[in-house]
Amino acid sequence: VRNAVREEAAQIAKIHVDSWQVAYKGLMPQSYIEQFTIERRERMWTRVMTEQLAQLIVVEKQGEIVGFLSYELPNHTSEDKTALVTCCYVSPLHYGQGAGSALLDELETRLLSTPVMQISLNALSTNDQG
Fold first, then answer.
1. Rounded to an integer, what distance in angstroms lies between the CA atom of residue 101 and that of residue 13?
2. Domains and their CATH numbers in the chain
3. To 5 degrees, how large is the angle CA 102–CA 43–CA 50?
4. pTM for this one?
5. In this structure, how many other beta carbons lie within 10 angstroms of the beta carbon of residue 65?
6. Closest by Cα among 7, 125, 13 to 68
């Protein structure tokens, strides 16, 4: 697990879109899922990394990115000590192989040296993928 770089935005976008199409099928309207294209997600992730809107880490298997996690740290002036996981997605081809756990373990390790006291992650109540 390591930090993502801007040049990987297309790979991250593909995982994001592929995962949405599998994980949210039947949980959200298909027309809503289909509006999130690889091109749109690539622009979004390029912007996130360029403007440092969130921290972004990736997990690799045999040199290929198979999942990613983005998170935001609390504002230094805030009393809230909660880090927010904004996205955590794994390629559907790698579900159940530990990639998501590796990302969450790395996040926990990184946060040990910060004032963060808890991690928040929002998920659909009907999402049972992980």
1. 20
2. 2-121 (3.40.630.30)
3. 70
4. 0.90
5. 19
6. 13
